[in-house]
């Protein structure tokens, strides 16, 4: 796919997650994206005078190069592994409640409004635009229980070019009389129809060596809201549906709040645990996304690890609804896949940057509690439990970690040959007009070469803790510009 028309070449500072303990920061990196929107190759450390020679060696002649300015860098796009599109209008309200009352008084009344399709369309157009411009290139969306409104959500996501999983909630009990599915049969019928609608949106990409392994941008996801809202026969039918398609992702909630955990145990006496409920119905597997996991018992952690399911850590929401703090460090030490979720409107921000900041605070609170607790067990020097999360871990959870949770690790999450170019062009320059970032000012003295990597490290950290949508200059999904600050200005 070489040639002038088909390729995009980026040259400049690139930060690429490697693991929970390291990332690469290359101040002068050359990255090529082919016509299908996939990465052809990445070359670290190309001096300006080597540029043409390097391109020519790769078979690229007379090609336009997008040169990043000082104070700009590329990172993989953020992956939001858990959010509720219809709850965005409630953002920033209801923080006085805990989970079950919050659902009753704040959330269900808002979600029930999505039976009105005009309201649904107007709301979802705004929601998806905001999510993309916040830097989220892949998003796991819960819709409502309404089939037609959830089709609209999928259509809007597809139109705007975001990568996403869109699910219609299954909920046929323990829900308000005006916001509940009439039966498990009706729930399954609508679920099959939403799957078929979303599958028909994306025709498979043209078969070529680069794109054959890639899945469509918008995909369906089975969404039993949580165990409490589903009868045994509904969960059983969803398990049967899941068994018929091993590629179909599953998303639900687990152990967010202690009252919810207790009530779940009451409703499912036959199950060994909350995680055991999902396992009993065949809904716990390598592409299951479990949101929260704040109050898991040891045997549940082992079961989730054995099934290779992933956890979406939603610290903003867990603080806001007074749910507790998920011991994410301990889960990471066990080798469980973890990503970040905004969980709007339990969380009060659409931005994964907020989730990163609150994940950092949550880990620090765990480490403080461990130091001051009766057992005074500090974190082990080699593990993540009861220790603050380092910058590489925070970046990894927001990108590659989320990709693994979504079973998309072969496709997105890092910059590597053959992966999709889902990326953010971050701007920490003064002209981004974010007063919170002490960034790069044009006219700063030329930085010595050996200091440039250190400078890039500092830009990354400042962006993660002080950045917002003003610093997200461009958002790319599958090589295509789909949002960001300069997209609108």
UniProtKB/TrEMBL annotation:
Residues 73-482 form the Amidohydrolase-related domain. It holds the Pfam family Amidohydro_1. Pathway: Purine metabolism; guanine degradation; xanthine from guanine: step 1/1. Keywords: Hydrolase, Metal-binding, Zinc. SUPFAM superfamilies: Composite domain of metallo-dependent hydrolases, Metallo-dependent hydrolases. Its EC number is 3.5.4.3. GO terms for molecular function: guanine deaminase activity; zinc ion binding. GO terms for biological process: guanine catabolic process. It comes from the Eukaryota. Binds 1 zinc ion per subunit. GO terms for cellular component: cytosol. Its cofactor is Zn(2+). Gene3D superfamilies: Metal-dependent hydrolases (3.20.20.140), Urease, subunit C, domain 1 (2.30.40.10). The keyword Zinc applies. InterPro entries: Amidohydro-rel (IPR006680), Guanine_deaminase (IPR014311), Metal-dep_hydrolase_composite (IPR011059), Metal_Hydrolase (IPR032466), Metallo-dep_hydrolases (IPR051607). It catalyses: guanine + H2O + H(+) = xanthine + NH4(+). Belongs to the metallo-dependent hydrolases superfamily. ATZ/TRZ family. Catalyzes the hydrolytic deamination of guanine, producing xanthine and ammonia. This is Guanine deaminase. The lineage of its organism: Eukaryota, Fungi, Dikarya, Basidiomycota, Agaricomycotina.
């Amino acid at each position: 796919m070489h040639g002038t028309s088909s390729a995009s070449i980026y040259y400049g500072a690139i930060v690429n997650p490697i693991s929970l303990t390291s990332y690469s920061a290359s101040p002068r990196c050359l990255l090529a994206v082919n016509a299908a929107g996939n990465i052809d190759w990445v070359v670290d450390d190309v001096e300006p005078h080597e540029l043409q020679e390097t391109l020519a060696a790769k078979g690229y002649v007379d090609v336009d190069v997008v040169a990043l300015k000082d104070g700009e860098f590329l990172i993989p796009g953020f992956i939001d592994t858990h959010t509720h599109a219809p709850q965005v209008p409630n953002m920033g309200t209801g923080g006085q409640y805990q989970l079950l009352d919050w659902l009753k008084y704040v959330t269900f009344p808002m979600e029930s409004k999505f039976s009105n399709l005009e309201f649904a369309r107007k709301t979802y157009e705004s929601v998806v635009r905001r999510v993309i411009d916040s830097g989220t290139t892949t998003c796991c969306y819960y819709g409502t229980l309404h089939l037609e409104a959830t089709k609209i959500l999928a259509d809007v996501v597809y139109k705007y070019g975001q990568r996403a999983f869109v699910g219609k909630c299954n909920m046929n009990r323990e829900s308000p009389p005006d916001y509940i599915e009439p039966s498990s049969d009706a729930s399954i019928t609508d679920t099959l129809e939403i799957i078929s609608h979303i599958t028909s949106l994306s025709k498979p990409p043209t078969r070529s060596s680069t794109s054959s392994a890639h899945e469509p941008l918008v995909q369906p996801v089975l969404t039993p809201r949580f165990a409490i809202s589903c009868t045994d026969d509904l969960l059983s039918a969803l398990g049967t549906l899941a068994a018929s398609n091993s590629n179909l992702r599953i998303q639900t909630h687990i152990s967010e709040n202690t009252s919810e955990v207790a009530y779940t145990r009451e409703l499912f006496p036959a199950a060994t645990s909350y995680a055991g409920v999902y396992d009993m119905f065949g809904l716990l597997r390598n592409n299951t996304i479990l949101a929260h996991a704040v109050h898991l018992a040891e045997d549940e952690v082992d079961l989730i690890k054995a099934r290779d399911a992933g956890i979406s850590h939603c610290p903003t929401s867990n603080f806001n609804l007074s749910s507790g703090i998920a011991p994410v460090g301990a889960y990471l030490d066990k080798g469980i896949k973890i990503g970040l979720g905004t969980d709007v409107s339990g969380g009060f921000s659409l931005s994964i940057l907020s989730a990163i900041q609150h994940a950092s605070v949550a880990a620090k609170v765990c480490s403080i509690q461990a130091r001051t607790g009766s057992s005074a067990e500090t974190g082990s020097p080699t593990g993540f439990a009861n220790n603050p999360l380092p910058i590489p871990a925070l970046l990894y959870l927001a990108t590659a970690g989320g990709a693994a949770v979504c079973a998309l690790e072969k496709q997105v999450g890092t910059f590597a040959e053959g992966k999709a170019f889902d990326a953010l062009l971050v701007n920490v320059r003064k002209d981004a007009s974010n007063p919170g970032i002490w960034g790069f000012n044009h006219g700063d003295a030329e930085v010595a070469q050996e200091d440039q990597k250190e400078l890039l490290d500092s830009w990354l950290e400042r962006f993660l803790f002080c950045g917002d949508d003003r610093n997200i200059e461009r958002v790319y999904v599958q090589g295509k510009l789909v949002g960001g600050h300069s997209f609108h200005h």
